[in-house]
Write a structure and sequence with these properties.
Helices cover about 70% and strands about 0% of the residues. With about 110 residues, it is mainly alpha-helical. Helix 2 crosses helix 4 and helix 3 runs antiparallel to helix 4. The longest helix is centred in the middle third of the chain and has 41 residues.
C-alpha cells in the first residue's frame, strides 16, 4: 500500500477590491468620497463632450457636402483659422491643439 499525503482543501480566493482611498489616491475616506463624486461628474461631462463632438462632425459633413456640391473645396482654410483663433483665445496654447484635433475629426487630415 502506498501512503497518502493528507491534503488541505484549496479554497478559492476572493479577489480583494481596492478601497476607495486606494482607488482615488486620497488619504482619507472623506477626500476619497469627494474625489469619487467629482470623477462621476467628469465622466458625465466626458460623455456629453463626446456627444457634442459627434454632433459637430455630422454638421461639418453637411457643410462639406454642400460646399463640394456647389463646386467649392472641401475645406475653408479661413474658417479653420477663425476656429483656431477662437479656441486659442479661450483656452491658450492647448486650445489650439484641441481645435486642431476637432478640425481633423470633422474634416480629416488635409
Amino acid at each position: 500500500m502506498t501512503a497518502t499525503t493528507p491534503t488541505t482543501p484549496i479554497r478559492p480566493t476572493t479577489p480583494t477590491r481596492p478601497t476607495s482611498t486606494e482607488k482615488t489616491g486620497a488619504r482619507t475616506e472623506e477626500a476619497a468620497d469627494m474625489i469619487g463624486g467629482a470623477r462621476e461628474r467628469i465622466d458625465a461631462l466626458d460623455d456629453r463632450i463626446i456627444g457634442l463632438v459627434q454632433e459637430r462632425m455630422a454638421i461639418s459633413a453637411v457643410i462639406q457636402d454642400a460646399r463640394i456640391a456647389s463646386g467649392g473645396r472641401r475645406v475653408n482654410l479661413s474658417r479653420e483659422m477663425e476656429i483656431l483663433t477662437h479656441y486659442s483665445e479661450a483656452l491658450g496654447k492647448p486650445g489650439t491643439s484641441l481645435a486642431m484635433t476637432l478640425l481633423e475629426l470633422c474634416r480629416g487630415r488635409i
